[in-house]
Specification:
The chain has two domains: 148 residues; 217 residues, no CATH class. It has seven helices and 26 strands. By secondary structure, the chain is of the alpha+beta class. Strands 3, 4, 5, 6, 7, 8, 11, 12, 13, 14, 15 and 16 form a twelve-stranded antiparallel sheet that branches.
């Protein structure tokens, strides 16, 4: 064989090898794309197919909820008001007992009661946070004329009668809450912001001073004792001219040591500057009254016409609206039979933007209605809980696999589900959801992954 023929022969072998391996790879790839796993050992009529479906029709709307118990709140008692563009005017007021720091008689040694000169009285409220905007609000304080009982339950709709006299010092009620800087109490800086409301010397302090020697100031409890004589305070706001997106709800820690009333006075006989505390603490009965005035709001319109929930529907804490979702044509899938649910997720997009002051609830939960008509958590609650809000997608995503599987097996009746929030009595968070037929890109949906057999 000549050198020339040898080279030609080697090239031919190389080309044949390349062609052989190329054909092998192509055929191998084609088989992977076209084959069904297990086809060789499974009869044609028994093939499994995994399907992902997200076209189930949802119905979305909102309904009023019941009042919530608010006397059990310790660190986030709500106070203030704001006007929401969808929900209307939201407001919260506080009813609370005040207690003596100890038995006291303000009569100075070697003098008479008129030798006591009051300088100021300050109601200090420790601030934890604010929901809404840092606008000025007009605070008012009134004396309660009904008994409060620490062993009683009080709700967001509960009220107590009060006197008509505003106990805030004249001109001192309009305050811009400061949640950026730590406050001062009794001349010392605190480790948290403080709301300082000046009270009237004439209307609040002097009547207490004048009870010296009568027995009223000898203790807190019992007939004729201080809390029998002074039932407590209603702390509220009166923001008559608030516009949309103005104001906010303050979160108050009523049981913190810095939450109290301090009276500052002088004993002119003994040339002493003195102070005396009236406390609000864990022994004080207290609760919040919460009100959502939906007049002429989108929420009111939705209550009147549930089909408006196809565009937007709503949820709010504080005993506000709760959201409802139902699956309209899922029965068709149930009736088709031969289906195993692998995964079921409910995705609820929201109307929230980075600049929005009204943060959505941090976590939501789903309830179903059982055979007795009672709302209970879905079976998935024990394993996956609720859904934390996802700021990256502006949505909630619920794993409801066990519940949907139960629907397919006939374990549960198909009824509308209820969406509720955490922190119902301690936060003002609300949620604006995209409705089932929203014109926006992100629609609520049920994503089913199931196997047909």
């Amino acid at each position: 064989m000549t050198i020339s023929n040898s080279i030609k022969w080697r090239k031919a072998v190389q080309l044949s090898a390349i062609f052989f391996f190329s054909t092998l790879v192509i055929n191998s790839c084609k088989k992977k794309e076209d084959s069904n796993l297990g086809l060789e050992i499974q009869p044609q009529g028994d093939q499994l197919s995994v399907v992902v479906e997200d076209t189930i029709q949802l119905t979305t709307y909102s309904v009023p909820s019941d009042s919530v118990q608010t006397n059990a709140v310790t660190s986030n008692t709500m106070l203030g008001s704001y006007v929401d563009p969808y929900f209307g005017k939201i407001s919260a007021s506080i009813y609370t007992q005040i207690r003596l720091d100890g038995a006291v008689d303000f009569t100075p040694d070697g003098g008479v009661l008129t030798d006591i000169v009051m300088d100021s009285v300050i109601l200090y409220l420790r601030l934890n946070n604010l929901y809404g905007n840092f606008d000025a609000q007009n605070f008012e304080v009134y004396q309660i004329t009904e008994d409060l009982d620490i062993d009683s339950k009080y709700y967001s709709t509960t009220t107590k009668t009060t006197s008509s006299l505003n106990l805030v010092a004249a001109g001192g009620g309009t305050i811009v809450p400061d949640l950026v800087n730590n406050g001062t109490v009794n001349g010392s800086q605190t480790d948290a912001p403080i709301l300082r409301i000046p009270l009237s010397i004439t209307d609040f302090a002097q009547p207490i001073i004048d009870q010296s020697g009568t027995g009223v100031l000898d203790g807190n409890d019992g007939t004729g004792a201080f809390m029998d004589w002074f039932k407590g305070l209603k702390i509220m706001v009166n923001n008559t001219n608030q516009g949309v997106n103005e104001g906010g709800i303050l979160y108050i820690d009523l049981e913190d040591n810095d939450t109290k009333i301090t009276m500052y006075f002088r004993d002119i006989v003994n040339a002493e500057a003195l102070q005396f505390d009236l406390n609000i603490n864990s022994k004080s009965a207290h609760f919040s009254n919460l009100n959502i005035d939906i007049t002429n709001s989108a929420v009111e319109a939705l209550y009147a016409d549930s089909t408006q929930g196809e565009n937007l529907f709503f949820l709010q804490t504080m005993g506000g609206p709760k959201a409802k979702v139902s699956f309209e044509n899922i029965q068709d899938y149930i009736d088709s039979g031969n289906v195993v649910i692998n995964k079921a997720e409910l995705v609820l997009p929201t109307q929230y933007y980075v600049s929005d002051k009204y943060l959505p609830a941090s976590e939501l939960f789903i309830l179903r209605t059982n055979a007795s008509g009672k709302e209970v958590f879905l079976p998935d609650f024990s394993t996956s809980g609720g859904s934390l809000y996802d700021y990256s997608t502006a949505s909630y995503r619920f794993d409801i696999t066990r519940y949907v599987a139960g629907l397919f097996k006939g374990d549960y009746e198909l009824t509308p589900m209820t969406i509720i929030s955490n922190g119902n009595a301690v936060t003002a968070n609300r949620v604006v959801f995209n409705g089932s037929n929203t014109q926006l890109k992100d629609k609520p949906k049920l994503v089913l992954t199931f196997t047909r057999y």
